[in-house]
Amino acid sequence: MRRLLIPVLTTTLVVSALAACSSGRAADAKTVTLVTHDSFAASKSVLAAFTARTGYKVRVLKNGDAGAALNQVVLTKDAPLGDAFYGVDNTFLTRALDEKVFDVYRPQALASVTPSLRLDPTGHATPVDFGDVCVNSDEKYYGASSGHGDAPATLDDLAQPRYKDQLVVENPATSSTGLAFVAATVAKYGDKWLDYWDRLRANGVRVVDGWEQAYDGEFSGAAGSKGTRPLVVSYASSPPAEVYFAKPRPTTAPTASMDSSCFRQVEFVGVLHGAAHPTAAKKLIDFMLSRTFQADMPLQMFVYPAVSGTPLPPVFTRFSSVPSEPLTLAPAQIGRERQQWIQQWTDHVLR
Amino acid sequence: MTRAARVLLALVPLVFLVLFFAWPVGAILARGLWHDGSLDLRAFSDTLSEPGMLHVLRFTVWQATLSTLLTLVVGLPLTAAVSRVRFPGRGFVAALVIVPFVLPTIVVATAFRSLGVERSLTAILLAHCFFNLAVVVRVVGASWETLDRRTADAARVLGAGPVRTFWSVTLPALRPALVAAASIVFLFCFTSFGIILVLGGPTFATLETEIYRRTAELLDLRTAAVLSIVQLLAVVGTLAIAGVTAGRAGLRRVAPVERVRLRRGRRLPVALAVLPGLLLVVVPVVELVRRSLADRAVGWTHLDRVTEGFTVSPLHAVATSLWIACTATVIAVALGLALATAVTRRRRSRLGRVGEAAVLLPLGVSAVTVGFGFLIVFDSPPLDLRTSWWIVPIAHALIALPFVVRTAVPLLRAVDPHQREVAAVLGASPRRVWREIDLRVITRAAAVAAGFAFAISLGEFGATLFIVRPETTTVPIAIYRYLARPGATNLAEAYTLATVLMVVTASIAFAGDRVRTRAGRH
Question: Is the pTM of this model over 0.90?
Answer without folding.
Answer: no
